[in-house]
Amino acid sequence: MNSENKKIITRFPPSPTGGFHVGSARTALFNWLFTKKHGGVMYLRFEDTDKERSKREYEKDVIDALDWLGIDYYGPFRQSERTSLYKRHLQEMIKGGHAYVSEEKEGDRGSVIRFKNPNTQISFEDEIRGVIKFDTTELGDFVLAKSLDEPLYHLAVVVDDFDMGVTHIIRGDDHISNTPRQILIQDAIGAPRPIYAHIPLILGPDKSKLSKRHGAKSTLEYKEEGFISDAMVNYLALLGWSPGNNVEYIQRDELVELFTLDKIQKGGAVFNIDKFLWLNKEHLYRLPGKELKEMILDVMPTDIFKLPQYSEERFNKVFPLIRERMHTLQDVQKMSNEGELEYFFEKPGYHPESLNWKSEPNIKNTRSYIKQILDTLEGMPEEEFFVPKIKESIWDYAESHGKGNVLWPMRYALSGVDKSADPFTLAEVLGKTETLARLNEAILKIDEHEQ
Ligand code: GLU
């Protein structure tokens, strides 16, 4: 087949019978990348022939997740709304001797429509797996439909792919065993054979099929956890595919450009949350500052805005520190919960004894260290109040009197918490005036306590 000048048509046909997990999202993405690369069309088709298990809420989940991932499509279509098409094919198959109505004695089926299996050898070339051969005798006369109005999966898939002109079927390799039946039906209804690419399963760290048990979530749950769309697309793309040069941070447009079926691996792809977190961090970090700032402000607890020293100017100084540390947007919330943001925007409250470094129990000494820092910083010109200069002005003193002895109280006076940014960064972010004020307050606190 000459696929060069033939329009590429793919499909993403989820069964809306459960949450939209990462495996489905990855299948959608591979189809989409391939389709975009070749300027084709991807159909979204809900395979809802299972009436009991199919639910509209699951369809919505798929649509919302695809929207979020930026995967566009043609449709959606629903198999439940196409029964007349399947019926016509069933009737023709019966007329042509490819199917027959079978009265079932066992079970409570009544009659069903069965495929008249020609019992042939089938071989197809999978783009990823290579040649796959199958003796269809073992499939027997399988059931195509419960009745003319109730088609089952294999018939509906084949009829739809034919009707929609699907050229490439990219789907999970758990469908390999379905392919021979579907090829038999294609041959019976005169449908051309599409090109198949069966992609490897996604595995958990223990190499079994990825599931909730491994902590895997539905696609939109990752959004709620503060992953961003571009990072998820990047990560999903690497699940079973790679451009082959060890590059991992890849933007959407580049993915489209680089994506080829022949770079898809055969073996299972292990889901690695740490790698996903790392990629999310990279994508967040490389966003234009303005965009990331807005995202952070959107998720920042509103209490922060109400703090007495909150200002846009101060936030802009804190922003690089948040950016440096965050892996997900949710981390902003976490930092706030752990009291790692508040002290930037309000004077800290603490017990003066906390100002003592662990090996310096004498508060009078601590007071003298703080006083020395205060005097030194006071003498610094405002325009030099940046990390390197601040550090330089204090460093020798800190080294000669014990770094912990000197820098711990400085940091504590500025933040009031055990874990915070380093004292020089704190001083720069707070600015000269506020830094001096907080150091002064520490001295006052000690004096009050000592009286
Ligand atoms: N509806 C099937 C599923 O959700 C997909 C069938 C196919 O890709 O042919 O697994």
Describe it for me?
The chain has 451 residues and is α/β, with parallel strands linked by helices. Helix content is 46%, strand content 13%. It is built from 17 helices and 13 strands. The protein is elongated, with a radius of gyration of 32 Å. The structure holds glutamic acid (GLU). Glutamic acid is lined by residues 13-15, 47, 157, 171, 175.
| Coarse structural class | alpha/beta
In round numbers, the mean pLDDT is 95
Low-confidence stretches: none
Helical segment count: 17
What's the short story on this structure?
The protein is of the alpha/beta class. Helices cover 46% and strands 13% of the residues.
Structural topology:
Blueprint: E1 9-12, H1 22-37, E2 41-46, H2 56-69, E3 74-78, H3 83-95, E4 99-103, E5 111-115, E6 121-126, E7 130-135, E8 143-147, E9 150-151, H4 153-163, E10 168-172, H5 179-189, E11 195-199, E12 202-203, H6 219-224, H7 229-237, H8 252-258, E13 269-270, H9 273-285, H10 289-299, H11 302-305, H12 312-325, H13 330-337, H14 363-378, H15 387-401, H16 403-415, H17 423-450
Parallel strand pairs: 1-2, 2-3, 10-11, 12-13
Antiparallel strand pairs: 4-5, 5-8, 6-7, 8-9
